């Protein structure tokens, strides 16, 4: 019989007074990227440190009280502790990059007083398992870099009691999932409490007069607080308690409740946090993917309740200060709910004054060609609620503009108002200690934190670089063997079967890494298209390769699980298992060995379905070369010398044929270029040309791929303009929001009357030359609108064989007078500054000082196809 406790609680360690600073060091997650603090914890008890997975909170709970008492009298240890505590204080309180910017509220470029950053997952450290893949890791790096730069961000997420899932393998290679229960009291979290000591709570309404309650846990990520909402409390009924049970699981209604809690509850948690701590209220709200989109609905409710704004005015106030980042390159990756399910949760007995359910449904409606009328699209809502939006690489920005172009009909893809800020990675988290030590020893400290000085890497001796690379490869081999043995024992193998693991992998063999989530488009098994060709590469007598693979398939993705099993089955083969290994349970801790230990990082998605692909950035910062399809960030920054580009079979419609072509190209590259260069040894048995590529990779990519560069871009390109826009709305009792809402309503109502009636040109003959000036006169009907409400532009540029304008530019025309028919005459001149086929057209668009872009309303008027042009050049 199993004896079970009737009550469960966690007993916290009470540290002796001299050791109390250890508690603060353990509870601030800066230790996860600060090596000296980790060294201090390891020195307490190295064996226990390893046993608890390098988790300071668990360490302090596991060390015997006698050992702690002895440390409390150890003068040398106390001196080290004092230095670490003082360093943390300096880090938390000192001025950093953000503090050098104009102060919040100052004109014209004052930075936001605070930014709220919402994400469904955050990958900070393996000790806080609240992430599944790239989205969460990116969010974690965003917070860490913001902390290093002093950016006043408040992170907002959910606390999942089972996190994502832990992965293992069955004996025959199938993925197995388990969901260990996480106790918040055993994690580096503190409960947010009101002044009277009671836990702070938020609640949101649900249909049937039910309420969803959540308490607020706080993780301290350096200078950045991360608020995490937890519904597993006694105030909730069993169904509601399960809302925050696990990441990306459950029914559609379960997911809707999670996203309502994240968005609506998240805003309320931020308000509670700021009221309790005195932290500045956010001026900017950033939603990382569409999962948190309901935050805009909550803010509309706030403006209605506190300021009396109607829905339209409140919407403008919300949009001005909202940033939306999409990470999804395919429509199937977007959260979409049944329209009636959303209606039930925002209407009926759960309706909110000032927020009509029809308007909420309109925000998520796919009211564009090809859209489905019965669904509610979270990304579409995110775009409609944000005045500024971006993709996460230059190519992904292009893809996103194509995906969502239906929201801005009539505009060229280049003018769809979705920009791009290419992701970056947090170097102190992902760069191996050996790399940092070599860089510091040869070049001085601080290289990885600043986008300057990277060119000095060329001064590091080739022998030092090569020896470091072999050391890192050896560390990966040791780690992989340990994990491989544990995996096989979990699969049921006995020690007598596992002697071969001692010879698995080789620290002197070219090592290729591949690790990521396992959706089909990432093509985990592309390397297996020709198993015999791969086998010959693995077992080459003079230029062998070895491959370390990791990745998780979503528990509901049977196709992904089959891909994992296919890879595992091949890697189990006795003739190659020492050259290719699959390591289950890919997480941050594993990744921190993988990236530095590999010589080549492989990425072979279906182009252009990789939004960014930051794993290759992390590898590059450790001197690993990329071998990748030109997708995501690699399409943007591959220069021919910092790695290799796998040719793509764009335009081949047969997916099997495409995979065959691209797999063969991959095999050829590995055999004839990658392996050949790695094993081409010169003086001192060094691969000189390989090391040149390593140096060039670090010099050319190092400054670009840093998360500090990324966060600075967000501040300068999105956060600061959003804060200024929000302030412009807020003056004089939100007069700006009211004015803009009324103006938009008037423009939308009058736009059917707007048209281009006549275009004529003069000033050039039948054979125009560079330097000639084209004089333009345009007659437009504006209906009830005024010239100040619109802008008439001439769009010009090179034309292709279909008369489409390529790389066009626009020039505004000036209103001159109104004719007797009420039409407005606009005039302007256009200098011909290029040779070759040239064309122009004219268009009318709304214009207002508070618009972020002329395309914001999605309204445009152009000349009719069948006339209205005199002496014109080709019309588009």
UniProtKB/TrEMBL annotation:
It is an enzyme of class 2 (transferase). Residues 15-128 form the DUF3417 domain. Signal peptide: none annotated. This is glycogen phosphorylase. The keyword Signal does not apply. It comes from the Bacteria. It catalyses: [(1->4)-alpha-D-glucosyl](n) + phosphate = [(1->4)-alpha-D-glucosyl](n-1) + alpha-D-glucose 1-phosphate. Belongs to the glycogen phosphorylase family. It comes from Yinghuangia aomiensis.
